[in-house]
From TrEMBL:
Domain of life: Bacteria
Keywords: Transferase
Entry-linked Gene3D superfamilies: Spore Coat Polysaccharide Biosynthesis Protein SpsA, Chain A
Matching InterPro entries: Nucleotide-diphossugar_trans (IPR029044)
GO molecular function: transferase activity
Protein name according to UniProt: Glycosyl transferase
Length: 300
């Protein structure tokens, strides 16, 4: 098996980072893997509490023993999550043909690395497959196939190849210019999630997301993403502690420990897509009161 390098992006949450590292270390394949840990710096005007949390996170990753080789890439200045990931992934893929990517709040299953490495190997020559995802929201379905190809990119534990990533388009304006009404509806999963608005907000400077631009790049190119129908990662950062989230339980999952990789038809699985549409509609309705509370009272 070829072991892809792992990129981990951290910032100011040492407790989350420790759980992420411990879960990753429970994967046997990590002993054969290079790991690159990118730690962002403080924003201008950051308070002492934030600076201390950033320093604590950097100290943690310096001391934590993991991987066949560990490389630390620390920034003194704040790049922001989007720039950090775009630059970091691009940097590693200049010298490696593939990559596995995690953020500091993604807790992986013991079989995560085996799944990701096997999927990267099995689908590397299938040009229609651009992205391997490890997360899937809880679709409340036990009759779905274990693996599916879908249009939407899931970023809570993911992998890709250099020849796909080199086609990443960071220009929100250029991406938006390629949408018509039909594509917008398809991109938004029949209106169940406001992905297109996220892309417009990116252009307007109201958000800072690499992920929505990567999803749009894949979507407009006609690419597909390989995902489990039940997640093998969980996001522990939806607790209001992150820079880009408010507290919600909408994305909690009953995670699998392991998942086998196999070849499946190179077309979108319509049944899984419809299950995702149904899930997003329910989550949208559930999130409205939570989001109003967040706007009124902040993180609680």
């Amino acid at each position: 098996m070829t072991f892809a390098p792992i990129a981990l992006f951290v910032y100011n949450r040492p407790d989350h980072t420790l759980k992420t590292l411990e879960a990753l270390k429970a994967n046997p394949e990590v002993a054969h893997s290079e790991i690159f840990i990118f730690a962002d710096g403080p924003k201008a005007g950051a308070d002492e509490k934030t600076k201390l949390a950033i320093q604590s996170t950097k100290a943690l990753v310096m001391d934590f023993e993991i991987g066949a080789r560990k490389e630390l890439i620390f920034s003194d200045q704040n790049k922001g999550l989007a720039n950090s990931i775009i630059e970091g992934v691009s940097r590693i893929l200049k010298s490696h043909g593939r990559i596995i990517v995690l953020e500091d709040d993604i807790v992986v299953a013991p079989g995560f690395l085996k799944f990701m490495n096997e999927a990267l190997e099995l689908y590397q020559n299938e040009d229609k497959v651009w992205h391997i995802g490890a997360y899937m929201p809880d679709l409340k379905r036990n009759d779905l196939p274990p693996l599916a190809l879908v249009q939407q990119m899931q970023c809570w534990g993911w992998a890709t190849w250099a020849n796909r990533w080199e086609q990443f388009n960071p220009s929100s304006a250029d991406l938006l210019s390629k949408f018509d009404g039909r594509l917008k509806k398809q991109f938004d999963y029949e209106g169940s999630f406001n992905f297109h608005r996220m892309l417009r907000n990116q252009l307007a400077g109201k958000r800072d997301s690499w992920a929505i631009r990567w999803y749009a790049t894949i979507f407009l190119a006609g690419g597909l993403c390989l995902n489990p129908s039940r997640s093998i990662t969980e996001n522990i950062g939806q607790d209001g502690s992150g820079q880009h989230s408010f507290r919600t339980t909408n994305y909690d999952v009953d995670r699998l420990d392991r998942l086998a990789v196999e070849k499946i038809p190179l077309e979108e699985n319509k049944e899984v897509r419809q299950a995702m549409v149904k899930y997003y509609w329910k989550a949208k309705l559930k999130a409205i009161p939570q989001y109003i509370m967040y706007l009124l009272f902040g993180r609680r």
